[in-house]
Amino acid sequence: MEVLAYFPDYLSGLWITTTASLLSFAAALVLGVITAVFRRSGIWPLKVIGAVYVEVIRNTPSLVQIFLIFFGLPSIGIHLPAFEAGVIALAINGGAYLAEIIRAGLTKVPSGQFEAARTLGLGRTDTFFHVVFPQAARYVYPPVINEFIQIILATSLLSTVALNELTGTALVVNSLTFQTLVAFAVALVLYLILTNVVSFAAAWLGRRMFHPPLQLRQERQHGKTLLKRLTIMAGGR
Amino acid sequence: MRSTKNNRRSVSLAIGVGAAVLGLTLSGCAASGGDSGGSGSAGASDSVVQQIKDRGTVNVGVCLTSPPYGLIKSDGDPDGFDVTIAKKIADDLGVKLNIIDTNNASRIPELQTGKADAVVCTFTITPERQKEVDFTDPYMVTGRSLVVRKDSDIKTLEDLTGRTVASTKGGISVQIINEANPKAKQQPYDNYAQEVLALQQGQADAMIEESNLVAQAVKKDPNLKVVIDGDVGDKSYFGIGVKKDRPELLDEMNKVVHDFVDSGEAADAFTKYFEADPTFQFQNLDKK
């Protein structure tokens, strides 16, 4: 297998994919929380900034956003290397989606919770961080993890700005070995491993972080295993 | 629980229908694959040219992001030096031309998967590529140049140490840069247009590319300059790529190539698209 000779390159590609996703997600989460708070605040300029940001980002293609930051910003003197440009682009992009997810979560916390905390004498900040946010976090945890997975998959777009992450590596290996099927299959399997590690870790964390424990993976629901469900779907008993 | 039972039945029915459709599709593929799949034997390979004629169109892969070899005019039609050859292929076979826009990295997969019958796209003939596809005799010879921005201090290949050098994925520049200076940082882009953009915007310090492409880029952008003209690495011989084991189609393509070069059409097209008279580009092609 000629492709397997490039396995170390795939691993370094996987490393770049992993670090780029983690950094983008962390920054996107911060951006998302700030924007969600902006959009729920009573101060209209903040509301407008939040709304414009979310609408502009969610209604334009991520690839164009990446190109704008990597190829466009040098025109005004800002030169960002491919990795930094990519992380910033994905963070800005993910932040807009996370803002809406978090905003929905905050909205779902009954207003009585807020009022009760205020009545008990807690300040606005304390109420937000100790009463509202922990409850919202439980609601938004599953969709936030889903967005994390989306960010991991979106890093493949960074191959277009000559970053040798996993997809970029597969493209280069393909062009060197011409073994198209194997070259991309290796990348696919590595993505699958990465995303599954992330979702299992998130499920584990969800069970421990929340009280009562949050179940992310539900294949054992109603006492039916995945295998049983498939058997039933296929018409068997 | 009658309804559950019904649901269950309808699900298994749906799966059954799905499986049947899938089965039919697969057997259909197998049948159509059988016609072209046996291209190893002489009888079957004869039918490839016949198939193209029966189909009435020939699919030719051309890179339309590498002006003036391949480009899309403002009215939306493809044009360029390589497009001229693609048109000649269609004329020779007496069929309509269907141009497939491709890029360096997709040239070989395009042929192997049968999406393109032939590929004309600054396709340098190399021994590694000849293991995967067949090439016609060369229709052009060219070199590679080193290009930088006007304000750059890069003058030699040694100066590239630690600097970023743009190339295209699947192009031979990747290997040439490696041989010229292994300490250069490679930036392989998806296509030529992005590669030039990276150099123009300062995201790459230099670019090593085919000399005629480079000459055009420098003519259009006064901020770029050629430091080494056509003399980086070995000379490149461009050929038309065809899927392996299709001798009759290859013969036909060779006829197109020889006619294109010998009739002087190649030189005319060169003058038209590169706005310069050819010097060595069409000489001693048989020496390859």
Automatic annotation (TrEMBL), chain A:
Single Gene Ontology BP annotation: amino acid transport
GO cellular component: ATP-binding cassette (ABC) transporter complex
Annotated ranges, domain ABC transmembrane type-1: 14-199
Transmembrane segments: 12-38, 50-72, 78-99, 144-163, 183-205
Keyword Transmembrane helix: yes
Keywords for this protein: Cell membrane, Membrane, Transmembrane, Transmembrane helix, Transport
UniProt membrane topology term: Multi-pass membrane protein
Subcellular location, principal: membrane
Superkingdom classification of source: Bacteria
Localization: Cell membrane
Entry GO MF terms: transmembrane transporter activity
Family: Belongs to the binding-protein-dependent transport system permease family.
PANTHER family: ABC TRANSPORTER PERMEASE PROTEIN (PTHR30614:SF35), MEMBRANE COMPONENT OF AMINO ACID ABC TRANSPORTER (PTHR30614)
Protein name, as recorded: Amino acid ABC transporter permease
Species of origin: Cryobacterium tepidiphilum
Source organism phylogeny: Bacteria, Bacillati, Actinomycetota, Actinomycetes, Micrococcales
